[in-house]
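Project standup — Tuesday

K.O.: blocked on the structure for the chain from last sprint. Re-posting the sequence here as requested.
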Amino acid sequence: MLHDRYQLAFKLYPYTRSADQDADAPVRHPVVVMGGGPIGVATALDLGLQGIPVVVLDDHEGIGMGSRAICFAKRSLEIADRYGCGKPMLDKGVVWNLGKVFHDDRKVFEFNLLPEEGHKFPAFINLQQPYFERFLVERVREAQANGAPIELRGKNRVDNVTPHDDHVTLEITTPEGPYTIEADWLIGCDGASSPLRGMMGLDFEGRVFEDSFLIADIKMVNDTFPTERWFWFEPHFKSGASTLLHKQPDGVWRVDFQIGWDIDRKTELQEENVRARLDAMLGEVDYEIVWTSIYTFQCRRMKKFRHGRVLFAGDSAHQVSPFGARGANSGMQDVDNLGWKLGLVIGGKAPESLLDSYDAERVFGADENILNSTRATDFITPKSKISHIFRNAVLDLAEQFEFARPLVNSGRLSVPCVYDNGPLNGADALQGGPSRTRPGSPCPDASLEDGYLLDKLGGGFVLLTIDELAPDELEEAGIALRRVALTTSGTASGVLADRYLGQVTSGVYLIRPDQHVTARWDHYDEAATRAALRHAIGLE
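H.V.: unblocked you, prediction finished:
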């Protein structure tokens, strides 16, 4: 239910007639993205900034209403920053690192998600999904003005797709009638219900959870809670079996009540019933309700994310429970993984088989998210008397003993996936190097004398050398390898050395365009570097 005073809807790409609708024959496009949500727009932005023409088709004319996803992790912000829109997201978002866990009326413990220094972005920000989408679309408009070949088409509903060996045909309906186009590559970013998935006769595999959660976004007259994530198991105010509270921009607070499976949604969403739960929780606090909704969830994914010339990303490919903020954040990692690979394939610099590594790596990431999400859900909503007793025993122990705290699971919060044993990983020849920067790992940020490390990485292959000599430029198989040369002699050297050298005195890293490590050595070896680069683009 959207209340009149909560206007987070933006009509950013209204319908306009395209030249394709007047063409005598279907126009072929290099890439068509189906779905104009955050993952679809981010995909278009990634490809468009590479100079690849891309068309986004969406059956609406702008971004959605209501807060929906609100927790965006550091990795998503780092990806957005590479696209040029991380700063406005950070400026608008509510920054938080501290979380507290309660059982009944007792605080069990608290945790800090980013206890270390040297990162450009915080562990998380809270930002309503419509704002996240709006900043992406605004960056698209800026990129378009500078020549990026991106087109956003609102009120263009895809009604049918026909895959072929070398392209896909799409039949589209608009307010002015139907038309047909073709795409060399079609990317499905059309959400959990994914019409594209249905058109292709594909389905999810996994588990559906029989529970319901009531969302209430409210504005309190006076903010009585700190900017932290608070989670109650069996809260003393009895408004639900569990409750989650955290702050969003514009003075809006998100409250999630676990209300059970066998409910009447219409009754639960009546304002007087929502207020009864809120009043029991908040006491004598003045507030207004600005948005309410009820959600259920599932932990499922497609068997494969690539089907010939059709690829799936975001919720259309996988779904998880909201515990841990793994939905939109994992979707952004899909985009991060797919964009550079598809760009190399379209540019003729990599074989089509490179896209199979997108399927392998992001299926691995989806399984990791589903595992963590399922474990959180089972802990939050125990399904038997014994599991309920065990859960509460863990909470009681965690209140006094640190060893029990890692067992408490109110949602393991999203962190980027490490592609251990990934198909593109090369040598790990940095003996004594830190585990956190092993091949397959996303590069951790580090403060430097002139900024931050991640600002120097991404957008292409990079050879990162730390206290080691190497050529400033190298080309292999048409790929230009750019060198970033750093030293540990500066004032910020401790952070860099700790995260990238560990027990050794020099290091060389081959880093992918998505800022993941593909290989590392303790010294520069040209032959090994060339071989690792060829392997990373699917040539060996």
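K.O.: great, moving the ticket to review. Residues 172 and 241 are 45 Å apart (CA to CA). Residues 354-380 form the longest helix (27 residues).
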